[in-house]
Amino acid sequence: MKERKLTKDDQGVNKVSFAEGLRRIASGGISGKFTEQEKVLFERAKCAEEESKKRSFVLGRQLD
Amino acid sequence: MSSTILRSVGKGRSFFSFVEDYCPSEKDSANRSIHRLCSLMRKMDAETAAIESIDDTFPEVKEEFAALRDRHEGSSIDIKAFRISFITEKIKTLHKVVKIPDSKFLASVIIINFNVDGCWSSYLFRAIVALPGTKRKENINWYWSSFLFRTIAALLGVKRKVDRDLLLNNYIHVYKTFQCEIRISETCVRTFNIVGTYFCQQNNATSVCGHASLCMTINNMVTYKGEIITPEHINRSIGTNHKKTKFGSGVGLSIENIRTALDSFGLKYTQIDFIPNQQFEYDSVIHKYIEGGYPTLLIFNTKNALHVVTVLGHTLNTDLWRPEAEYAYIKPQHSDDYMVYRPASEWVDNFIIHDDNFGMYQCMQVDSLKRETNAKTDPTFRAYYAVMITPDDVKTFAYEAEYASVKITKDLLLMQKNSFVAINDWLERILLSDSLKMISVARTMLVRREDYSRSLGETDFDGNTFTDIEKEEIINDLPDLFWLSEITLPDLYTANKTKLIDFFYPTNLPPLTDINDIYKRWIQIRFPEALIKNKENQLTVFEMSVLSHYPLFRKMNGPIVPEW
Lengths: 64, 564
Fold this sequence. Notes:
- The structure holds two protein chains of two kinds.
- Chain A contains four helices and one strand, in the order ααααβ.
- By secondary structure, chain A is mainly alpha-helical.
- The longest helix of chain A has 11 residues, at 18-28.
- Chain B is of the alpha+beta class.
- Chain B starts with a strand and ends in a 13-residue tail after the last strand.
- The radius of gyration of chain B is 26 Å and the shape is globular.
- In chain B, the strands form five sheets. Chain B has a seven-stranded antiparallel sheet. In chain B, strands 8, 12, 13, 14, 16, 17 and 18 form a seven-stranded antiparallel sheet that branches. In chain B, strands 15-19-20-22-23-24-25 form a seven-stranded mixed sheet, with helices on both faces.
- Chain B is built from 15 helices and 26 strands.
- Classes of the chains: A mainly alpha, B alpha+beta.
- Chains A and B meet through α2, α3, α4 and β1 of A and α5, β11, α7, β12 and β14 of B.
- β1 (58-59) of chain A pairs antiparallel with β11 (253-254) of chain B.
């Protein structure tokens, strides 16, 4: 999502309060877009803990 | 039977000689953990040590002695043990030990020495060591008020638990109060409390580093209320028979053994394997648990084996250059400007660990276990695996919670801005952080509802507070445990220790199947001026009185850490 610069016309518009703005958003819901890289990262991350449970190894050997 | 003696250990008295007297193995091999203990005692102004010779009649060591004899069945074995208490006061006679306040006790340790076929081994079987700090200096102008304070406190029966100034920017999040004792005579025992941590060493015969680290993890958790867990408790939980399983002779403790032991003690945990998951920086993962007060077993590769240490806290360097400069100078090609943020762990320069080979309260530089080379071809001295102890099952990965926090809050702020909503200056700075060359900061941690509730009594930078109705609205839909991501700006984080946004995310949801589901999963977001809740995908908004930056979440108990 890219930000939009305010125009001079925009400046003249009466702004509503932050809470009121959130209420307007609330009625329509929130969604967003993801880059390909974000999708790949999530794909890798989602199984990380499940996969970690399968790891087997042995600890313990005092320093020589 | 015990006989207790006093020995001066203040400046001018050698701790090297002291160690030689109570550790016969010292002539062949220096025990670095015992030396580290002595170094801490020197720094913390120990003046006197009370030394007791102990034997099988002491319940704390009875089982350990038996295990050593079992393990070395058929060999000639001799065992000598000492319980040593370190005190900051010069004391000449034993009966005075009864009168000194608890705050003068720095440590209570048990050293066990065993001789098998003429060769001595020594180890710290148990060490309760006070949180490190420097002796509080009494200002002469303060003397009378402090005298008055002490008199009133004495009359009211109030005892100062910590008589030292804790170290600057040292955040030891996992510690508690331990009851210790000295036997003055056959009929008199002095009990005292130490606010600090439990430490122990493997003996390489009936225990290895896995036992030690597991004991240090469990025994230091505030939420663990049971008896002190010893390596023999762990051996029982995994069914070890010392006559058959010879730890230390190429036999170690497996990760499956650790999981079995944790299950048997009713503890929950989450785990991450860093080798196949190199997109996760190990410090960023661990920090999210430690910051909430939950300890971690950190496993790394040595030259020829895997070793484990216990992470109990961290230091913070708020003057670090890299967190902001690295991004500015070498902005990654693939970065999405919109999502620029730094996890709070970027300002952590050391983890505070207990390493059974090197001692307690060691500062392990975060970069020590990071390598730029390929993990498969250069595996040595690299974070390998971590087991984080959690209060309940935590299914939702911290990475998801933190990423969602930045993504969703920035989406909301941008939607607001594009809808001609009045956005306060602080939120505008978050939204424009990249174009202002000022990254945002996300501090994510596991938080309990009751602890968060207590943090709502503070005032923001402009003196505003939450009303009782607002506090209730913030709290009433939160689960008992959640991921909290605090979003702020670097200057607010490093100088004011304050935040702008609180983002709440569940801990009990399975891995995402569709990335878009993050928009359905979040619980609520508290901005300056407003709270937005997501209850079964119905969004509701409440106005809030807090308008400016607000103190970071901290648990409201325990000694105060001096901060810079």
